């Protein structure tokens, strides 16, 4: 079946008892047992809940994977994925990664005795140079946050498999509609379902998808033991979002490309970063491993932080916010928001400079969004 059909039907059949077309919200903490000697498939909602099962099944199918595991947030999903590590192991991560991922590597894993080395996202050779005998995991985002750098997932997966290393891909920016890392050879896919999968800025969640039975067992055991699970209402909200994912991603992309082209010609903008533009240095790679370019656009302004502040404070439709992927258009200064807790030296090392502005292009009319950006740019 096609993507949109799977998103609406698979794992979400009408309830066998009531005929409910929408998956019921099983708002219960525990389930009764038939007898002391027997138990049903569900007995305690931390371990399993029918609403969560429906979400996990659908997520796995959309990523063309075998197993889906849902979590209470994107960083909880990442913590589950890194349970494949033990003290003494080594991680190679892309340099340009979400601030929450960086904090996990540096503030949580490093004290456990797991060291992380950072490679250039766009260069597979850089990852190869960082690999050590004790390297157990390679972690990437493609496209990355906030610089929208791409990694050649096929090439990196071949390198990882040759070296016996697990490759995990954060696929939040692309979504499974535009990119399927498992099909490109990755072992693990991670999502913040808060973003495009939920799509309405009303739920926090995360997910891990894999086709590897052993990895799934490790991640599923962690889910039950650590307990960072989404409630049934959260699962239902993400399920509802998935039903319109195709339509939303197409519109996000259409408007993002429109704005990227318009901003490229603006005299106050020094650079536009969007994989759908021929000017993006990895435009051809994007076309080869993605079926679309997504709804995220990053721009660099002439004038540094004063210009960034002026722009953000002058926008009317774009909301200054720390998230992305919703129906509403959002805007952020990565250097002062997501990466704000990092030192200036560390931000500079990651090329997360004060002139950067990250746009999460929503579902408003593209011409209205363009006019909002133009009037704000005119104030600089």
From TrEMBL:
UniProt KW keywords: Pyridoxal phosphate, Transferase
User: E.C. number, please?
Assistant: 2.5.1.48
Give me the ranges of the annotated region Disordered. Answer: 1-20
Q: From the UniProt record, which GO molecular function terms apply?
A: carbon-sulfur lyase activity; cystathionine gamma-synthase activity; pyridoxal phosphate binding
Q: Does the keyword Iron apply?
A: no
Any single GO CC term annotated in Swiss-Prot or TrEMBL for this entry: cytoplasm
Gene3D superfamilies for this protein: Aspartate Aminotransferase, domain 1, Type I PLP-dependent aspartate aminotransferase-like (Major domain)
Specify the domain of life of the species encoding this protein.
Answer: Bacteria
- What Pfam families does the record point to? Cys_Met_Meta_PP
In this chain, where does the modification N6-(pyridoxal phosphate)lysine occur? 195
For the biological process aspect of GO, one term held by this record is: transsulfuration
Q: Which cofactor does it need?
A: pyridoxal 5'-phosphate
- Family listed: Belongs to the trans-sulfuration enzymes family.
Can you say what this protein is called? Cystathionine gamma-synthase
